[in-house]
Specification:
111 residues; mainly alpha; Multidrug-efflux Transporter Regulator, Chain: A, Domain 2; 2 domains; 10% strand; elongated
C-alpha cells in the first residue's frame, strides 16, 4: 500500500467514525422521542432501582410493578418505581402475600 492509498484509507476511517457518532446521536434522539413521559423502559427502570433487567421483568410478572407495553416495549410508570424504591420491602411482602392467598384460593383486599 502506497502513501496515497494510506491517506485515503485514513480519511475513510475518519468519515466512518464520524458517521457512527451521528448514528448514535440519532438513535439517542429517537429513543427520547419514543419514550413516553412518566414511563421508563425496563433497562432504565433496572438502572433506576439498581437491579438487573431480569429482576424488573420478574417484578412485573409477579405483580410487584406494573408494566405497560408501549410501541412494542415494556415500560414502567415512574411513579410506581419511585414508590417501590421508597419501600421495596412492603411491595415485596404484599406481592408474596397475594401469591400465597391466590394459591389457597383466598381473596386479599388492601393488605
Amino acid at each position: 500500500m502506497n502513501a496515497q492509498e494510506q491517506k485515503i484509507l485514513i480519511e475513510l476511517l475518519a468519515e466512518i467514525r464520524a458517521l457512527k457518532r451521528q448514528v448514535a446521536a440519532i438513535k439517542d434522539e429517537l429513543e427520547r422521542a419514543v419514550k413516553p413521559a412518566g414511563y421508563l423502559p425496563v433497562k432504565e427502570a433496572a438502572r433506576y432501582l439498581g437491579v438487573c433487567r431480569k429482576t424488573v421483568r420478574n417484578y412485573i410478572k409477579q405483580g410487584i410493578l406494573p408494566g405497560v407495553k408501549i410501541k412494542g416495549k415494556i415500560h414502567i410508570p415512574l411513579e410506581a418505581l419511585e414508590k417501590f424504591k421508597q419501600n421495596p420491602e412492603e411491595a415485596l411482602i404484599k406481592a408474596k402475600a397475594s401469591a400465597i392467598a391466590e394459591e389457597i384460593g383466598e381473596d386479599i383486599v388492601n393488605l
